[in-house]
Amino acid sequence: MLRFVANPRTGVRAVGLSLLASTMLLTGGAALAEEAQDVPAGGDPSGTADQGSSDGRIGDEDEIIVTAQKREENLQDVPIAITALGTAKLEQLQVNDFQDYARNIPSISVQSGGPGFNNVYFRGVASGENANHSGPLPSVGTYLDEQPITTTTGALDIHVFDIARVEALAGPQGTLYGASSQAGTVRIITNKPDTSGFYGEANAEVNTVAHGEQGYIGEAFINAPISDRAAVRVVGWYRKDAGYIDNIPGTLTFPSSGISFDNDALVEDDYNDVETYGARAALKIELDDEWTILPQVMAQKQVSHGFFAQERGLDELQVQQFNPERNEDKWYQAALTVTGKIGNFDLTYAGAYMQRQIDGQSDYVDYAYFYDALAGYGTYFYDNDGNLVNPNQYIQSDDSFTKQSHELRFSSPADKPVRLIAGLFYQRQEHNIEQNYIIDNIADSITVPGTESDIWLTKQIRVDRDYAAFGEVTADMTSKLSFTLGTRIYRYRNSLKGFFGYSSGYSSKTGVAACFAPASVSGSPCTNLDNTTSDTDFIHRLNVTYKVTDDALVYATVSRGFRPGGINRRTGPGFGPYQADFIDNYEAGFKTSWWNNRIRFNAAIYQLNWSDIQLSFLGANGLTVIRNAGDARIRGAELDFFVRPATGFTISAGAAYNDAQSKNDFCRYANSQSDCTIPGPGGEDNEILAPEGTRLPLTSRFKANALARYEFPVGANRGHFQINVVHEGRRTSDLRLVERAIQGDLDEYTTVDLSTGIKAGRWNAELYVKNLFDVNGALGNSIQCAEGICGDPEGLTAIGPKVYTYVTRPRTIGLRVGTRF
Q1: What was the pLDDT predicted at 629?
Q2: DSSP letters spanning 627-687
Q3: Is 469 in contact with 424 (CB distance < 8 Å)?
Q4: pLDDT, average across residues 355-371
């Protein structure tokens, strides 16, 4: 579809609203949504077939096929809580990226840090992780087809086009998906090459963002048979996201030296724009009737400028930054999937190799200012002549990731009363970390050796390794009753080595002064960190499913998920390796279909017991500290509903409720008794960070969405009108009460999206409005250094606290046009 968009300042808004009003008159005021479905890979090349929209017939096209349990199954037959957004639904919701689909899945909550830095959580399993390179692994696994793509910085921000479906699997998925699927798993399934014929699609869009600029999208794919047993599919895209944050003028004076400087050279309206472009190519070869090989390569480059949060104390959508900010995130993944049969068993091999490179520059002047204002640090920064220099700091980062994964699994026939899935898994992730904290023109004696002007250098290599054997057996005890027993035996081995800190001329304790060996990582002056942690254990899953009728089942599940342990950069008492944390899930649910599949109603209730929580926070010198700090309990419920009351008219809705709170006191220095009266390892006072019963952060108690869609004839063509409403409840920003008070809560918000369009033969056009009422919804808070410093809780500085809030994209009006051929 070509996506063109209106500029509200030119009057096109009036045209769009008139068109929406006309459509509402045509539809009698009814508007609403369509269920998530897969569009067959072949489909109808003319584009005239009904892709998931109703013509009044209910049949196989209304089945939602998922592979959540590593078999193709009807979603209504899978006894776990799944939300699936198929090709048609992804297009209808104008889903372009991670944020777009996450907001429409009630069981998911997101902490945003800008493009490429989104952390996803399921069912309230969040302790306020800061996603530092040396911090814990995510609690949610992300997969691209069969291969994991999870990294410590968050999920890859993949452009969503020609995607078969996005599956969101809530609750621990550890037996089949392993480490970092502790609380849930997100799977992005691409459309595969198809030998049925040559066809394709081309779309284009223009859009305009309120208070901002214009954006553009161009995307296309072709599917081409090579023979009756081979086909290739090639996909390409380009997207320009408009900026909407203004960097406003400002002057900063450092108290110790009186040095002032301004940001005049960086003042710019709408300066947080993003460019994304990439491609995907896949080849499918059917060697015979049983064996298929599928190599695939996908690559993307995303360049973002500016900052994606607004600053507290300024007007909405404004910040005052003093250093250039830019991020270039490029990656590729080469994957191979082989499927076949050995006897009557299905065999699957899935392997992948991924490289990701993130080069960034970011402002760090808040750290410099507040440590000068509160502790006089500005007097420590001087040039070779002994003169004080501007202590302004900025960061230049170079993060290189490599990731390989291999899985070999066997599946017994799906039509037998006893069914088995078993396999082996190996994964290795390496993160080459380089972060240069720069103060220009400082003296050689206080510069980290080997750098031009670094006051601090982080140069480390982190390696996370996972090994596993897994299996699940399902036995039908009767025609209605079945049991599943699953387990995963795993071993992780994670290491961190290299250098972090100051020069010996600046610090006698941290950095070069603490080195104990020559450089083990290229680009570092020496080694002051080299540690490894490992463990071997197993997790389990037990499930019982009862098929009440062909259209209704109930189930109960007991399962466990885990997240591997890791290394703290600091050493000494209280800074040893942190251990794995675990979630025990107790869940019951039902799935029902009514009225010849015109109504579906699914729901689940659960309790998660989260033990040995990996709590990460900023400590001295802005270093992330991770400790197994306590336990939590989460009770909640999820439901989704779909109804097709009349031809062309569909309504769907989903909701999630989570009561997530700590089960004991969280102490600054963790101990097995969670008794904060026990001193720290060096005899320090062990204060209570969060008392028993404290609400866990980042997840609202209630999140819901509702989608309604009405499709109607327009002569020989077909039109539609749609409304989508998403509500996100209030969230707390941190588990620790003092830090929470400084950062503030994230207020609840509700967004409304509208769209209307027409499909005429091979062509279609759609006019849409996202965030109709221009809601400034909070997605997450951030702060550059420890809250007790940059948050200025005592109000001791001239500029007050510096807290930033990532917000929803302002109202966006767009027009897209496309053709299928």
Answers
A1: 83
A2: EE---EEEEEEEEEEEEEEETTEEEEEEEEEEEEEESSPEESS--TT--TTSPPTTS----
A3: yes
A4: 96
Q: How confident is the model at residue 46 (pLDDT cuts 50, 70, 90)?
A: very low
Q: Where are the beta strands (DSSP E) in 264-369?
A: 274-286, 292-305, 309-311, 318-319, 326-342, 345-363
| pLDDT bucket at 637, cuts 50 / 70 / 90 | very high
Q: Is the dihedral of CA 575, 580, 586, 591 positive or negative?
A: positive
pLDDT tier for residue 580 given thresholds of 50, 70 and 90: very high
Tokens 């989104």 map to which residue? Answer: 118
pLDDT at 542 exceeding the cut of 80: yes
Per residue in 196-244, pLDDT tens?
A: 999 999 999 999 999 999 999 999 999 999 999 999 999 999 999 999 9
Pairing mode of beta strands 318-319, 552-563: unpaired
pLDDT (mean) for 157-175? 95
Q: Which amino acid is at 174?
A: G
Q: How far apart are CA 655 and CA 706, in angstroms?
A: 9
**φ, ψ dihedrals at 557, nearest 5°:** -135, 140
Per-residue confidence (pLDDT) for residue 38, from 0 to 100: 37
The confidence score (pLDDT) of residue 60 equals: 34
Angle at 552 between CA 547 and CA 557, to 5 degrees: 60
| Residue 166 host element (H or E) | strand 163-170
Average pLDDT of the residues of the chain = 90
Beta bridge partners of 470: 423, 488
Domains of the chain by residue range: 2-820
The amino acid occupying position 620 is: A
The CA radius of gyration of the chain, in Å to the nearest whole number, is 27
Give residue for tokens 């999820």. 638
Please tell me whether residue 693 adopts helix, strand or coil conformation. Answer: coil
Distance CA 434, CA 437 (A): 10
* Backbone phi and psi for residue 356, each to the nearest 5 degrees, phi listed first: -135, 135
Q: Which DSSP helix (H) or strand (E) runs through 759?
A: strand 749-760
| Residues with Cβ within 8 Å of residue 612, at least 6 apart in sequence | 579, 580, 581, 582, 628, 631
Q: What is the pLDDT of residue 129?
A: 67
Distances (CA, A) of 367 to 258, 378, 382, 790: 17, 11, 17, 7
Q: What is the β-pairing status of strands 184-190 and 163-170? A: antiparallel
pLDDT above 70: percentage of residues in the chain: 91
**Which residues, at least 6 apart from 712, have a Cβ–Cβ distance to it below 8 Å?**
26, 27, 648, 718, 719, 720
With tokens 């066997």, the residue in question is 410
- The answer on pLDDT for 41 being more than 70 is no
Task: Please name the residues in contact with 477: beta carbons below 8 A apart, sequence gap of 6 or more.
Answer: 483
- Dihedral sign, Cα of residue 69, residue 74, residue 80, residue 85: positive
Pairing of strands 318-319, 309-311: unpaired
Q: Return phi, psi of residue 279, to 5°.
A: -155, 160
Give the CATH number of domain 2-820; options: 3.30.70.20, 3.90.1300.10, 3.40.50.720, 2.40.170.20.
2.40.170.20
3-state secondary structure of 512: helix
Q: What is the pLDDT of residue 131?
A: 64
| CA angle (414, 420, 423) in 5-degree steps | 120
Q: What CA–CA distance (Å, rounded) separates 615 from 696?
A: 11
Worst-scoring range by mean pLDDT, 384-388, 575-579, 588-592, 772-776?
Answer: 575-579
Region of 744 please: left (phi>0), alpha (psi -120 to 50) or beta: left
Q: Can you tell me the distance from the alpha carbon of 294 to that of 147, in angstroms, rounded to the nearest whole number? A: 13
Token pair in block for residue 783: 């702060």
Measuring CA to CA, how many Å separate 798 from each of 363, 372, 377, 781? 19, 12, 16, 22
Note whether 128 and 627 are within 8 A (CB). Answer: no
- Contact call for residues 614 and 628 (beta carbons, < 8 A): yes
**Residues in a beta bridge with 331:** 300, 356
